[in-house]
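User: I'm putting together a teaching handout on how multi-component assemblies are represented. Below are the sequence lines for each component of a complex, exactly as they appear in our records. Could you produce the 3D structure of the whole assembly as structure tokens, so the students can see both representations side by side? Please keep the chain order the same as the input.
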Amino acid sequence: MKTIFVSGTAGSGKSLLSSKLHEYYTKNGAFAAVLNLDPGVENLAYTCDVDVRDYVDYVSIMQQYDLGPNGAMVMANDLIASKIDEIQNDVNKVNPDYLIVDTPGQIELFAYRSSGRFIIENLTSEEKTSIFLFDGVLINTPVNFVSIALLATSIRLRLNLPTINVLTKSDLIGDKLKDILQWSTNLKTLENAIAKETDGDTYALTTNILRGLNLGGFAQGLIPISNVTGDGFVNLEGAMSRILNLGEEVED
Amino acid sequence: MKTIFVSGTAGSGKSLLSSKLHEYYTKNGAFAAVLNLDPGVENLAYTCDVDVRDYVDYVSIMQQYDLGPNGAMVMANDLIASKIDEIQNDVNKVNPDYLIVDTPGQIELFAYRSSGRFIIENLTSEEKTSIFLFDGVLINTPVNFVSIALLATSIRLRLNLPTINVLTKSDLIGDKLKDILQWSTNLKTLENAIAKETDGDTYALTTNILRGLNLGGFAQGLIPISNVTGDGFVNLEGAMSRILNLGEEVED
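Assistant: Of course. Below is the structure of the complete assembly, with chains in the same order as your input.
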């Protein structure tokens, strides 16, 4: 089994991508399954094979501990880690080639508290990778691009997994897509765009950080996809294969 | 009026710090008020002077739009922006010297969606500053320190405010406090600590980023505080004064 963790900010398209990846693998003859790790989600775009909501009940937590929505959400996310044995058992019963893990809606509860890293470290799998979603609609300025790139890097350090950076909603952002891809591949272009937009302090901070990120190999390789049109899925699958299958493509 | 936005990850101590800052200013003869911007909080450590829950009702949103807890939380946070006139009116009625703004529990809903920046830009105030909380308990390794520093920088770029970085829970972390303060002031110490903890790839990525952050003046000036013992408040107030009052201290 190979495991793919799908993460990104709330609304960036995690659940939809999980569903589309499942479709993509199935169509290409691989056995894929989806694990939902979000205890607070109401409706999912797919039928999950394993569902954390079977073990962690958000509404009961609110009632039982007399918590408000915030407190219950934090507690529900923290509780995921304590359910690792049940999750592992259910995953083993399904035993897919590819396990796609749809992570909680609010990424900070998963990434910056202990449960996310615990699940990632303790779920038994041959290979593991992470897909981080850059929400295309959020990246409306070069400084916002750098901000999300910093968040992605922060989460990559927390989760400690090989990471593929994906730009979602490529069908919604028109000409901006070309700009964003230039920013992600050409440091000079990005610096010029930032210079036009910002004052001296922000420019100095941003460009210095950028040089660090770029030296770390970060800015390269952002893959644009659309969950709606399916654009970019072949590239995404290729990037996953290089990590998960040591270069072998999914059979088709 | 000067405005102080208190932000940080869920559980980092935002509400408690807001309450303690209010106490601190009051004790020193200034007129401070607290604005709660979190629509999903149940119990607060303080009496708010202005409360977004008076305009945005999380439970009604769940029922009215048939949303689960995640969806309702996203929508409630997005709705904050539409209530700017009501919030501004109520703030004007109170008219404090210092307005302390306790931001939503999950920082990503505030910082990476549009409402946070909108509120920050549109709330009328003489001066504005942001305090970002590094949760002392989360920073248990040098890589986790860098991860939170990246998050802080990301949010600083999104919110576009002069920012004071504060380390909370200094009373809970014992000897670790000394390590963290060394990491935050001495790049070489931090790089050595990371080298001991990580493999080659993470080390290369982390140290390159660090150099960028450091050039951007980031790593300096982390102020340790304890909301419990009150340690560090004098330093925090000094840092705020330098931004808000152009160097004048609060009268006492």
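A couple of points students might notice: The domain at 1-125 of chain A is CATH 3.40.50.300 (Rossmann fold). Chain A touches chain B through 54 residues (CB under 8 Å).
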